[in-house]
Amino acid sequence: MEPIIRLDGAGFRYDHLQERPEAEWALRGVHLQVGSGEYIAVMGPNGSGKSTLAKLLNGLLLPSEGKVWVGGLDTGLEKNHPLIRQKVGMVFQNPDNQIVGTTVKDDVAFGMENLGVPRQEMLKRIDQVLQQVGLRGREASSPHHLSGGQKQRLAIAGVMAMRPEVIIFDEATSMLDPGGRREVLDAITELHRQGTTVIHITHSVKEAFQAERVVVMADGRIEWSGAPHELFHRREKLTRWSLEVPLPLELKERLRRRGLPIRHEITGTEELVESLWKLLSRD
Ligand SMILES: Nc1ncnc2c1ncn2[C@@H]1O[C@H](COP(=O)(O)OP(=O)(O)O)[C@@H](O)[C@H]1O
Ligand SMILES: [Mg+2]
């Protein structure tokens, strides 16, 4: 099956239009394919090219080298942009910068209005997406009165209402408190369950474990890609990639290496304790 996203040697230089030979490449020779419905996490130090990659995926930036395909459409062709922007939605870091409406309802409607969605259909979708992100009943509220997590869920609702095939979260949890993070992560899991392709850019190893595949970027290139638990086979590189491994994950990995039957999927302290407890009570 044709992947929903394909980068063939894609690269980007911010000032390539000025043709300055000394211009730095923000992204260089990236090959990447993302399958329809896949859930990937993108990690890597600041300045490694994660946001640039995200912007190449919805045609906000055009590749300075190579090709970027979204749903079989070449992002290099201007005529494809309206369709590509409908296929790929983005949720950004700062919840306050994403508010566009004076009420929750208007805020969700904004993106659909730009797409020319008929009014009846719009009302139906608003109801549906607010239900999905748990904000139904708040239609008339001012978005500014929502908590950080609620604001991000509102941003997600606005993107979902446009029915994109892919949603990119660019550090969308980084400014939230733990409760807000949980809310947004749950919303992401639900989107994935419903078949949306998810690209989650995050600094959190714990969050990355929720994905099916992790892509690590460094210096504008893809440095490594694999299943989340395989990150531990690269532990000597974790520091270099500025990735800090949370204690329960580290502990789980050590226990597994000692041969204890603990599931890979475990990421939290409570699950780990429960799992150890069950093992102990078997004897
Ligand atoms: N608007 C811009 N103009 C010029 N250089 C930029 C711009 N945005 C990012 N860069 C540079 O491109 C590189 C990659 O940045 P970015 O994609 O934002 O990385 P990340 O999201 O991983 O932190 C960095 O060296 C950064 O300084
Ligand atoms: Mg970034």
From TrEMBL:
Entries under SUPFAM superfamilies matching the protein: P-loop containing nucleoside triphosphate hydrolases
Membrane topology designation: Peripheral membrane protein
Gene Ontology terms, MF aspect: ATP binding; ATP hydrolysis activity; ATPase-coupled transmembrane transporter activity; cobalt ion transmembrane transporter activity
UniProt keyword list: ATP-binding, Cell membrane, Membrane, Nucleotide-binding, Translocase, Transport
Domain of life: Bacteria
InterPro entries recorded: AAA+_ATPase, ABC_transporter-like_ATP-bd, ABC_transporter-like_CS, ABC_transpr_CbiO/EcfA_su, ECF_ABC_transporter_ATP-bd, EcfA_1, P-loop_NTPase
SMART domains (UniProt xref): AAA
A Gene Ontology term for the protein's cellular component: ATP-binding cassette (ABC) transporter complex
Domain ABC transporter: 12-244
Similarity comment text for this entry: Belongs to the ABC transporter superfamily.
Designated name of the protein: Energy-coupling factor transport system ATP-binding protein
Organism this protein belongs to: Melghirimyces thermohalophilus
Lineage: Bacteria, Bacillati, Bacillota, Bacilli, Bacillales
